[in-house]
Design brief:
Helix content is 85%, strand content 0%. It is mainly α and 261 residues long. The chain has one domain. Helix 3 (59-83) runs antiparallel to helix 4 (90-128), helix 4 (90-128) runs parallel beside helix 8 (198-224) and helix 6 packs across helix 8 (198-224).
């Protein structure tokens, strides 16, 4: 029993240290990102590369997937609303379900699987191979040149992909509810005005940015906490993805509670 409690206590302390390091890294990255002095040509190059690999390369397949998912959910909501005599609320329900909740979360999960795991692996291997120490010894600011540009690129990627898929979902929702009827645009605009108030729109943008911050900072922090043993690299990625999943779910639940409770 003593050995078991000792191991559990050590594991809990290690987890708390990782979370503390994650919060510390988040603060450092945010402060660095708000400083105009850090944006030189090298930083901008890394940011653009991160956006290209995270968003541009997957734009077509992800947009196609989002269109199929949106079409299926729209048909389910519209059909169910018509069945129960609630057709007048179908459009609003579709927008609140898809644009405000499902698509931002799906986008964050997709980016986490594609880029978050890659960032975690890259940072873990750089730590195991002592590359980070070599960069710091040569005078390179790893936070400014290695980590902060990846975080900014990830945040912008999640925000842009969420915006693109949301616009696509709105178009599909209009077609599902009104069909090819341009004279229904005033009614559509009225419903959009009811859904997208200033606070809701700001909250949606903030949630997308927080999602983007999570899918980059947590993999970086987990990679930096990797013990310097090669077999620990995949374990680090697994832990990072599990932690990231729970954080994304926590953000989504907190967002729902703030808006509807």
């Amino acid at each position: 029993m003593t050995n078991f409690l000792t191991r559990r206590g050590a594991a809990l302390l290690a987890m708390l240290r990782v979370w503390r390091a994650t919060l510390s890294l988040t603060g450092e990255v945010v402060v660095a990102a708000l400083s105009p002095a850090v944006y030189n040509s090298a930083t901008r190059t890394v940011v653009m590369k991160q956006i290209y690999f995270t968003a541009v390369q997957i734009l077509v397949p992800f947009t196609l997937f989002a269109a199929i998912l949106s079409f299926v959910l729209i048909q389910i909501v519209v059909g169910t609303a018509a069945k129960y005599g609630l057709s007048e609320y179908a459009l609003e329900m579709v927008v609140r379900l898809l644009v405000l909740e499902v698509l931002p979360l799906v986008t964050a999960l997709f980016v986490a699987l594609r880029s978050g795991s890659a960032i975690n692996t890259e940072v873990a291997l750089m730590r195991i191979n002592n590359e980070l120490e070599a960069l710091e010894d040569s005078g390179v600011d790893t936070l400014r040149l290695e980590f902060m540009p990846r975080v900014i690129g990830g945040m912008l990627s999640v925000l842009s992909l969420t915006a693109i898929t949301s616009v696509l979902a709105l178009v599909l929702a209009y077609l599902a509810v009104y069909g090819l009827q341009p004279w229904s645009l005033p009614d559509f605009t009225r419903v959009m005005g009811q859904v997208f108030g200033g606070g809701i729109l700001a909250g949606l943008g903030a949630k997308a940015l927080v999602f983007g911050l999570a899918v980059t900072v947590i993999p970086v922090a987990e990679g930096l906490a990797t013990p310097k043993m090669m077999f620990m690299a995949p374990i680090s990625v697994l832990r990072g993805m599990v932690r990231l999943f729970f954080v994304l779910m926590f953000i989504e639940v907190a967002s729902l509670a703030f808006k509807y409770i």
